[in-house]
Specification:
heterodimer, A: alpha+beta, Ubiquitin-like (UB roll), Fumarate Reductase Iron-sulfur Protein, Chain B, domain 2, 2 domains, five-stranded mixed sheet, two-stranded antiparallel ribbon, 10 helices, 7 strands, 32% helix, 14% strand, elongated, B: alpha/beta, Flavocytochrome C3, Chain A, domain 1, Methane Monooxygenase Hydroxylase, Chain G, domain 1, eight-stranded mixed sheet, four-stranded antiparallel sheet, steroid dehydrogenase activity, acting on the CH-CH group of donors (chain B), electron transport (chain B), Succ_DH/fumarate_Rdtase_cat_sf (chain B), SdhA/FrdA/AprA (chain B)
């Protein structure tokens, strides 16, 4: 067995990695001022670090009032969706080197939800839309099976993509329809409806489809693909929405 | 200040908290207080699976699972509790499937299972396929499924509410839980929740280490709240270091990677686990594998210019298998290291992962005030608790199991208690402790910074109480922690506002970490033996004569106000398994 080698990565690691970058952050604190302002911070950072590491350096070393949500720091919990250089991303999954650190890195809250302080937005309307699509398995069994329900690997695969959703709101808050009309369910809620509509064990697809047939439902989607681009989990969001639209027409799922 | 009244209050909305909430909400008026939105909890970061002897793919039974759990815990496990864990595992998995969890499936449509560290057929003969899984996203699926079912059941959540104090009232000479005090992040308002029953399900405290798989938010808030009120913490010296964290970052790469056939190699390409664990090899228990990795590194066989890591090699596995079974961890390697796992091995090192110790409970989730006395109305489940089903070292896939089995049990027990118990009077000025703590921090003019103290704490913990420990290193840690605790009194924050003051909360969280780090180090110093995750180089053997017992740590406050940790011990419950030498 050949010895595994990692020459390239380790050679890079051996050099002094730090560069100076500018974070240009949209600040807002109604306790201080009614207006949001841009503020620049200059810091030394290894370009292989995350945008979240940069925000932490600012909060921990420069300005403790900078406010943002975060938890797991590796793209699983969905806390730190924000607009970085004009695109919705997770701060913990975006490396400095991948977003051109030679220019100021702009960081703003996600759009379409009320900003509460700095990068923190009101997530309640987002979660309300999620709850509205009945995001839980519904079956008509009167007698629960003693063992697990059977499901073929193909049936399980059918909705695999939409089970990956971490409810970070990167998709919904990238959607121009959602920006203009907060009543629209938004991509994330439709993704979570899709997850159940196409689950062979579920028996409430018709109800969910009727909910999404509403004037604020799937038909508002203009297929701009912003949501697919924004999803940090690589979910084909626009495709999922299209499948729900198709199911509404054909009533097959 | 606002006062709320609920039958049952649950602190934390990860797996254990939400599993408890589903039961509790059906039976009593329940509020869930959580410092994060429920789906942000770190249960979602668990990857590899949930153990249960379903025997869907090969012969297995709960008795083998019980034995593996006890042996994995180096015989410090309470055997009655382990038996419950393994028996109820089966219904626990089936319940989740019925709630909608999308498990991977076998060709005949049942739940698929795979190998995991320390899980064996017939008491150690060979690895067994016991882990029920959904790719490498099992924790994510459990968290989502439980949240979905909380939505279905109409569970009432108070999101971004930080519980900062446990209220206890003495009634006829008995200390009873009266409720909790919480801080609302959005407004800075303080809320008192009077409750007949309180369940702590607030997770671990791994953030006192630097290289850790834990979220920034895992700061031991629940453990600290009850410890400060004079209740004990059990077995805090036992902390698990997961063998495969991403080098320097600590991000978890599931043991399922080795369950799927992944191999650990040193700089010579040698499959070194064959030397340390001839039968289970790369699938030995986590404490064994982590020590083996550091032994390789110390003996000069580590990889890279500094020889400070080893490789997790997946390159011999078909890309289709990696895509289907390990999609997330292979993406982590690509995103954070720029490495393609199809063709290149992944640099890894052990990462601080899981607290085996915590708030002592019995098998109903009732919190203990000492070795035997229950605190009426107080419950705990999940990583915050110590039942003890994990003993000195938890087996992989037993934590997702623990949160479901004991989350459910605590939810039922607490709600049934609420149905028959009366409210206990709140103590006088119930919020005073929290008001004082918050005001002190908000108005402090001290010169110490939270980030500096936290960094020094994490560095001393990594250097001195990690995989290998000695009297000398632990004493160094104890002294450093005492220094940091003294400096913490002089800490100041910059954000003086009320709205979303995360600066303030980080300071409070640091206080919790410092307190728990002290308990951990003092407990470790006194345990002069090596057992499971606690390895003393100056006492390299297990000592069943003197240390087959649980540590119980209590906070003592002297007349002059000085704080110290008092240690006591509790017998281990042994039923059918006599301690044996532990080999893999």
């Amino acid at each position: 067995m050949a010895t595994p080698v990692l020459d390239k990565v380790e050679a890079e690691a051996a050099e002094s990695p730090y560069i100076t970058v500018t974070f240009r952050i949209r600040r807002f604190n109604p306790e201080v001022s009614a207006d949001a302002v841009w503020e620049d911070f200059h810091l030394e950072i290894d370009p292989k670090e995350r945008v979240l590491d940069g925000l932490h350096k600012i909060k921990w070393d420069l300005d403790g009032t900078l406010t943002f949500r975060r938890s797991c720091a590796h793209g699983i919990c969905g806390s730190d969706a924000m607009r970085i250089n004009g695109k919705n991303r997770l701060a913990c999954k975006t490396l400095i080197k991948d977003i051109n650190p030679e220019k100021p890195i702009t960081v703003e809250p996600i759009k379409g939800l009320t900003v509460l302080k700095d990068l923190v937005v009101d997530m309640e309307p987002f979660f309300q839309a999620y709850r509205d699509v009945m995001p839980f398995l519904i079956t008509k069994d009167t007698n629960e099976p003693t063992r697990e329900r059977l499901q073929s690997s193909e049936d399980r695969e059918r909705f695999d993509d939409t089970t990956k959703c971490i409810l970070c709101a990167a998709c919904t808050s990238s959607c121009p329809v959602f920006w203009n009309d907060g009543q629209y369910f938004g991509p994330a809620a439709i993704v979570n409806a899709h997850r159940f509509i196409f689950d062979s064990r579920d028996e409430a697809a018709e109800q969910r489809l009727e909910i999404l047939n509403d004037r604020d439902g799937v038909w508002r989607c203009r297929t701009t693909f912003n949501c697919t681009d924004a999803c940090p989990r690589g979910i084909e969001v626009t495709k999922a929405i299209a499948e729900v639209k198709k199911a509404l027409i054909t009533r097959r799922y | 200040m606002k006062i709320h009244k609920y039958d049952t209050v649950i602190v934390g909305a990860g797996g254990a908290g939400m599993r408890a909430a589903i039961e509790s909400t059906k039976r009593s008026r329940t509020a869930v207080l959580t410092k994060l939105y429920p789906t942000r909890s770190h249960t979602g970061a668990a990857q590899g699976g949930m153990a249960a002897a379903l025997a869907n793919v090969e012969e297995d039974n709960w008795e083998w699972h019980t034995f593996d759990t006890i042996k994995g815990g180096d015989y410090l496990v309470d055997q009655d509790a382990a038996e419950i864990l393994a028996k109820e595992a089966i219904d626990s998995v089936l319940d989740l499937e019925k709630m909608g969890l999308p498990f991977n499936r076998t060709p005949n449509g049942t739940i698929d299972q795979r190998r995991f560290g320390g899980h064996s057929r017939n008491h150690g003969e060979a690895p067994v396929r016991r882990s029920c899984y959904a790719a490498d996203r099992t924790g994510h699926m459990i968290l989502q499924t439980l949240y979905q079912n909380c939505v279905k059941e109409g569970v009432e959540f108070f999101n971004e509410f930080y519980v900062l104090d446990q209220l206890i009232t003495e009634v006829d000479g008995v200390q009873k839980s009266a409720g909790v005090v919480a801080y609302e992040l959005a407004t800075g308002e303080i809320h008192v929740f009077q409750a007949k029953a309180v369940i702590y399900a607030s997770g671990g405290c791994g953030k006192f280490f630097k290289v850790t798989s834990n979220a920034h938010t895992l700061t031991g808030d629940g453990q600290a709240a009850v410890y400060r009120r004079g209740l004990p913490l059990e077995d805090m010296e036992f902390f698990q270091f997961h063998p495969t964290g991403i080098w320097r970052m600590g991000i978890l790469l599931t043991e399922g990677a080795r369950g799927e056939g992944g191999i650990l190699r040193n700089k010579d390409g040698e499959r070194f686990m064959e030397k340390y664990a001839p039968v289970m090899k790369d699938l030995a228990s986590r404490d064994v594998v982590s020590r083996s990795i550091y032994t390789e590194i110390r003996e000069g066989r580590g990889c890279g210019p500094e020889g400070d890591h080893v490789y997790l090699d997946l390159t011999h596995l078909p890309p289709e298998q990696l895509d289907a079974k390990l999609p997330d961890i292979t993406e982590f390697a690509r995103t954070y290291l720029g490495i393609e796992p199809y063709t290149d091995p992944i640099p890894i090192q052990p990462t601080a992962h899981y607290a085996m110790g915590g708030i002592p409970t019995n098998v109903e989730g009732e919190v203990l005030a000492d070795n035997t006395t229950v605190v009426p109305g107080l419950y705990a489940a999940g990583e915050v608790a110590c039942v003890s089903v994990h003993g000195a070292n938890r087996l992989g896939t037993n934590s997702l199991l623990d949160i479901n089995v004991f989350g459910r049990r605590a939810g039922i027990a607490a709600a049934e208690y609420s149905q028959k118990a009366d409210f206990v009077d709140l103590p006088e000025n119930p919020a005073q402790f929290v008001i004082d703590e918050v005001e002190q921090l908000r108005t402090s003019t001290g010169t110490e910074r939270v980030a500096t103290l936290r960094k020094e704490l994490q560095e001393t913990m990594d250097a001195n109480v990690m995989v290998f420990r000695t009297e000398q290193t632990i004493k160094t840690a104890v002294e450093k922690i005492a220094e940091l605790r003294a400096r913490y009194k002089n800490v100041a924050i910059q954000d003086k506002g009320k709205r979303f003051n995360t600066d303030l909360l980080e300071a409070i969280e640091l206080g919790n970490l410092l307190e728990l780090a002290e308990v951990m180090a003092v407990s470790a110093l006194a345990r002069k033996e090596s057992r499971g995750g606690h390895h003393r180089e100056d006492y390299p053997n297990r000592d069943d004569v003197n240390f087959m017992r649980h540590t119980m740590a209590y906070r003592e406050v002297g007349d002059d106000g000085t704080e110290s940790v008092r240690l006591d011990y509790k017998p281990v419950v042994q039923t059918r398994y006599q301690p044996m030498e532990r080999k893999y």
